[in-house]
Amino acid sequence: MTNSPILLYAIYIGAMFAVGFTTAFLFPPDAWYRALEKPSWNPPDWLFGPVWTLLYVLIGVAGAKISQSYLPGGAIGLWWAQWALNGAWTALFFGFHQIGVALIEIIILLLVIITFIFVAWPLSKTAALLFVPYLAWVGVATALNATIFWLNR
C-alpha cells in the first residue's frame, strides 16, 4: 500500500475516524433514541465519544500493523469487514431505528472481531491484542442492543 509507516497508520486510523464521524454526523442519537427504555446499566452519553476515540486509534493501529503482513482475504479482509459493519450498525440502529436488525448485525460484528483476533494472532500479536478492548466494548454494546430490543419490543 505504502512504504511510509506514518502514512500507513494515518490511512487506517483515518479510515476508522472517517466511518465513525460520518455515521455519527448522519445518524446522531435523536428523540427516538432518548425515548427508548434503556437498562439501568446503560453507559452515560458522555462516555461514548472518548471510548470510541480511543478504540478508533487502537483499531486503526491494528489495521496498519496487519496490513504489513498482508495475506489476501485473511486478517486484512476481516479488518475491512469490521470497518463496514461498524458503520452499518450506527445507520441501522440510530438512522433506520431497526433495533432487531442492528442486533443481528452487531452479533456478526462481534464474530468478525473474534475471528480477526484469532486470524491476526500468528501474524501480529500486537494487532490481535489491540482488538481486545474493541471486543469488550462491542460485547457490552451487543448486550445493550439486546436489552433495548427486549425492553422496547
Keywords for this structure?
153 residues; mainly alpha; 7 helices; 0% strand
Description:
The protein has 153 residues and is mostly helical. 78% of the residues lie in helices and 0% in strands. The chain has helices at residues 5-26, 31-35, 45-67, 75-95, 99-120, 125-130, 132-151. Helix 1 (5-26) packs antiparallel against helix 3, helix 3 packs antiparallel against helix 4 (75-95) and helix 4 (75-95) packs antiparallel against helix 5. It is elongated and about 50 Å long. The model has no long low-confidence stretch (mean pLDDT 95).
Number of helices: 7
Helix content: over 70%
- Average pLDDT number: 95
Series of secondary-structure elements, N-terminal to C-terminal: HHHHHHH
Q: Give the amount of beta strand, in percent.
A: under 5%
Distance between the termini: 46 Å
Low-confidence spans: none
Structural shape: elongated
Secondary structure class reads: mainly alpha
Biggest sheet layout = none
Work out the radius of gyration: 16 Å
Number of strands: 0
Write the layout of secondary structure elements.
Layout: H1 5-26, H2 31-35, H3 45-67, H4 75-95, H5 99-120, H6 125-130, H7 132-151
Helix pairs in contact: 1-3, 1-4, 3-4, 4-5, 5-7
Put the structure in a nutshell.
The chain is an all-alpha fold and 153 residues long. The protein has seven helices and no strands. It starts with a helix and ends with a helix.
